[in-house]
User: Which sequence fits this backbone?
């Protein structure tokens, strides 16, 4: 009988993070389980799906090396327990698992590990070096702009581009685009990797906004992100990412500056009364003010708010999708936001009024036709 002694809180915290990659309907039944492995006084935990794999470890006391697949039901069993040492007993013959804690126990069946997919092995000469905080911020600023369309797999991704001068994250669905760059040396040669939106969201939810070093090893088919005691591998998305730089206008002549929080609040309130299928919001800028309005002719509803703003030209009107511009504005930390325009049918650029040192955040939003 193999025995593992471990802290309940330490184990639960790791399992909760790993659970983010486990699908409710896995492609293989065995992928609906955690993989437990003990070796040299550490418990190694693994969770996988068809597109990625997360591995981590923590200290434990074990009397022998062993491996077993553990159902995700263990997570629900541990959630309500107070912090205390746990003793986990595993029968090597039938994989029956017994967990004892103060005043109680629970038992369930584990599974053989022979059918659990092995770790992907690959050679990689390309490597991106950054910090966990920079990686987290880069993904967080653009992942919600990526498409959710199975028919356009390359658009349903986050692009990561690294060079000797910059590290850039990009997401787009064809209607809006977000790019976030750090001016830093992250690698020697130019390296590009395309991450699926689901995997990028998992990375965002697991990687902390800390100063810890983070490394991305980029292979032909798979890439690996390592930080702390985590190793996250994912399948690279095949295909050619759109030439996003070609669609970003260089010099929109009209410039509007407005308080970020006030603009977010006005859009949230007026969107309630917009057409539910189009979510069309009308911006009307005129010298020192911005009028935000919406209406739904089908239900005879409308809303309008006037904000103080800086706009040096005569009246300019443009239609935008309220829900999409809210996604962009919610990622801008600056007190004031700058929007630049050209024509009512041309792309809008949205960015902080003042970029943080060493960073550049830009959103592109395609306008909507005003009826």
Assistant:
């Amino acid at each position: 009988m193999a025995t593992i002694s471990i802290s309940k809180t330490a184990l639960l915290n790791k399992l909760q993070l790993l659970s983010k990659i486990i699908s409710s309907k896995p492609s293989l039944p065995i992928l609906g389980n955690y993989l437990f492995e003990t070796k040299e006084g550490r418990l190694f935990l693994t969770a996988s799906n068809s597109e990625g794999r997360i591995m981590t470890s923590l200290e434990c006391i074990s009397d022998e090396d062993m491996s077993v697949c553990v159902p995700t039901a263990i997570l629900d069993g541990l959630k309500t327990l107070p912090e205390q040492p746990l003793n986990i007993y595993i029968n090597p013959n039938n994989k029956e698992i017994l967990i004892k804690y103060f005043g109680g126990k629970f038992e369930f069946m584990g599974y053989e590990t022979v059918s659990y997919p092995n770790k992907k092995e690959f050679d990689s000469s390309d490597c991106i070096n950054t910090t966990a905080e920079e990686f987290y911020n880069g993904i967080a600023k653009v992942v919600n702009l990526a498409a959710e369309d199975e028919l356009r797999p390359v658009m349903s991704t986050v692009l990561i581009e690294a060079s000797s001068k910059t590290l850039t994250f990009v997401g787009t669905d064809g209607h809006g685009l977000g790019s976030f760059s750090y001016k830093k040396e992250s690698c020697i040669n130019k390296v590009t990797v395309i991450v699926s939106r689901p995997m990028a969201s998992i990375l965002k939810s697991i990687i902390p906004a800390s100063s810890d070093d983070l490394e991305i090893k980029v292979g032909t088919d798979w890439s690996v992100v390592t930080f702390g005691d985590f190793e996250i591998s994912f399948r690279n998305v095949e295909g050619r990412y759109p030439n996003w730089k070609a669609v970003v206008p260089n010099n929109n002549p009209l410039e509007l500056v407005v308080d970020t929080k006030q603009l977010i609040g006005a859009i949230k309130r007026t969107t309630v009364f917009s057409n539910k299928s189009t979510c069309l919001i009308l911006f009307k800028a005129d010298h020192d003010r911005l009028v935000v309005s919406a209406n739904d002719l089908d239900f005879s509803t409308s809303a309008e708010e006037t904000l103080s703003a800086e706009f040096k030209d005569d009246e300019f009107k443009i239609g935008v999708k309220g829900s999409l511009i809210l996604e962009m504005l919610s990622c801008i930390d600056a007190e004031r936001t700058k929007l630049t325009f050209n024509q009512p049918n041309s792309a809008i650029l949205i960015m902080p009024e003042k970029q943080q040192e060493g960073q550049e955040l830009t959103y592109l939003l395609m306008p909507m036709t005003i009826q």
Q: What stands out?
A: The mean pLDDT is 93. DSSP finds six helices and 25 strands in the chain. The longest strand covers residues 301-311.
